[in-house]
Amino acid sequence: MTRATRRGTAGRAGRKEIPGTAHDAVMAVDAVLAEYLDARLHEAHEVNAVSAREMASRVAEFVQRGGKRLRTAFVWCGWRAAGAGGDLRTPLRIGAALELVQACALIHDDVMDGSPVRRGAPTVHADFARMHRAGGMNGSEERYSIAAAVLAGDLALAWADDLLTDTALTSAYGRQLHREWRALRGEMVAGQYLDLRAQAVGSSDEDEAVNIATLKSALYTVERPLALGACLAGAGTSTVEALRSAGRCAGLAFQLRDDLLGVFGDPEVTGKPADEDLRGRKLTYVLALAVRFAAESGDAEAVVALRPGKVMRSDDEVSRMRAALERTGARSAVEAEIARLSALSMRHFGDSGADHHVQEQFASLLERAVGAAPARSEEDDA
């Protein structure tokens, strides 16, 4: 079936046209989210008005506050790469479910990191703390806000599961969708726990840093969304595997960029503080590289600045750590790795058989995700 025929069929069925670009899909998913969240809020009010007002409404507001909607865009890329078969609303619903999983991950991550700001506004647990103070409530403000935020994240995940399940039940490829979804959730939780554990034991291991970045972010940000989109179109094994490889490389490049922004980014642009990872000595690939480079070069000052120690570091200690990441060459090395992974991702995506238009969309999306245009690899020049 040609694209024109698909659009004609969609029109006769009373549906909108297939989103022509990843950006169109991102814009369209907001409407799907709004409709779905409105229904969930109505249900929440029927259960209990207080919980709906103070808990469910906060989750819905957080989800709709913004974000790049990268996972939705990658679902669209996988779907289009595999031929864009089936109901055009299905990839948007999968995208909406992923945005709800992302909300759960961010709410819980902010609790674990003690982050005060997300997307330019107070984090969910910080907002619950404000409500506790303003209401003159009894007990510990901190314990209340943390417990409430954990429940808020749980609710976002429950809504995500419900949306994915409802969508899978109406799809011919529901079993494959559920298999990808189940793996995605398990990988994300494993990555979050390993991240927490590595910080607690003061790890500086490079392989562990890469493993955490892969599980915590790369898989559920890019690889699984691409595979979910491909499943919706009934893609063959070779197409799905090419997309998985592209997604693994792109997702890791995305997390490495996020790590750099967590140290060197402008809070006015990123919407979050730029020193939390250093203050808590979170294990990232750039930190692991810096530790090794410092030891190899005999940079005693950097070794001292980067070694494990107390949980929260002073502003002066954070400044010395940031300087060490620059001086050892770790920041430059990570920039080079981001470029290498981006080029490799583009080559794998081309192997999926996606047409030129979809490849251009993927390249644009990758540039947006990693902050730089994908460079040509040596193989491209061969």
CA-CA gap between termini: 35 Å
The CATH class is Mainly Alpha
Provide the low-confidence segments as ranges.
1-15, 376-382
Helix-and-strand structural type: mainly alpha
Return the CATH topology: Farnesyl Diphosphate Synthase
The CATH architecture can be given as Orthogonal Bundle
Mean pLDDT across the residues is 89
CATH superfamily: Farnesyl Diphosphate Synthase
* β-strand amount: under 5%
Overall body shape: flat
Number of strands: 2
Helix fraction bin? over 70%
Helix count, DSSP H or I runs of 4 or more residues: 18
Going across the major beta sheet, what is the strand order?
Answer: 1-2
Question: What would the keywords be for this entry?
Answer:
flat; disordered C terminus; disordered N terminus; mainly alpha; 77% helix; 382 residues; Farnesyl Diphosphate Synthase; 2 strands; two-stranded antiparallel ribbon
Explain the layout of strands and helices.
Blueprint lengths: L2 H10 L9 H26 L1 H16 L5 H12 L7 H25 L3 E2 L2 E2 L1 H11 L6 H29 L4 H28 L4 H27 L4 H28 L2 H4 L5 H4 L5 H13 L2 H7 L8 H13 L2 H22 L4 H15 L7 H4 L1
Antiparallel strand pairs: 1-2
Helix pairs in contact: 2-3, 2-4, 2-5, 3-7, 4-5, 4-9, 4-17, 5-7, 5-8, 5-9, 6-7, 7-8, 8-9, 9-10, 10-16, 13-14, 13-16, 14-15, 16-17
Mind explaining what this structure looks like?
This protein has 382 residues and is mainly α. The chain starts with a helix and ends with a helix. It has a two-stranded antiparallel sheet. The chain has a single domain (20-368), classed as Farnesyl Diphosphate Synthase (Orthogonal Bundle). Strand 1 (117-118) and strand 2 form a beta hairpin. Helices cover 77% and strands 1% of the residues. The relative contact order is 0.10.
